[in-house]
Design goal:
With about 290 residues, the chain is α/β, with parallel strands linked by helices. About 35% of the residues lie in helices and about 25% in strands. The chain has a single domain, classed as 3-Layer(aba) Sandwich (Rossmann fold).
Amino acid sequence: MTYFDQVKEAADFLRGKLGELTPHVGIVLGSGLGTPAEAVTEAVTVPYGEIPHFPQSTVEGHSGRLVAGRFGGAQVVILQGRVHFYEGYAPAQVTFPMRVLGALGVRAVILTNAAGGIDEGYRVGQFVVLADHINMMGWNPLDGPNEPRFSFLPGAGLRFTDMSEAYSKRLREMAQRAAVDEGITLEEGVYLAVTGPSFETPAEIRAYRTLGATLVGMSTVPETIVARHMGLEVLGISCVTNLAAGLSPMRLSHQDVYEAGRLVERRLRSLLERLAVWIATLVEAEL
């Protein structure tokens, strides 16, 4: 069975579970940020372990469930937790859930993550919308044979995917308006992705700042690249859950990252609910 066939089988399985639900907006919830999924009504919940070929989350703060239903009034499908390269998964497995979202009919995704703040002006608990990213993982999820059948929108599925607007400008502008309505300050930043699982050294953080990065983390970028390959629009939102190495006397730990995420989940939920409705309205008007 080919990779494309595995994605199709997983999507067909989920389509059978979702019934009349036809979500065009997908949301990925990062470390410690899973609570917004609990606000979904008319929810259909499927553990990752029940979905054919789906990778399993092994990290604390990643529940490992797909939740579909109505969120702020919009039909959405939420991935409550993701998998990472450092867990031992191959790139194709890391991005398999994103491929399935595309095959399900999702046309725009909101990717959230817990990130280390490189910008010295950032504070723990702050939200930052991603304007761009830097891939320092040492691999690209599009390596290997190209599969043009993943072209769910015109101009997608190409061997050489354009990344000049990896994060949709119009969705970023929408996020800024939504943040104002929610009383949230939302700056723009550049996310640099590393493989982990060790945290970065102070010297690495100084190097990343020189490159133009304001945030660092261990996810999101592979999902973004694959989403863009399929033609999906991407909005990225980071929660600064710790100050990067060298910016604080505190030792870095995943538990602190997890707890910091838990403290801001209520504000994140309100922002995501508003965005889900706006983005769903925008996308569905163009279908």
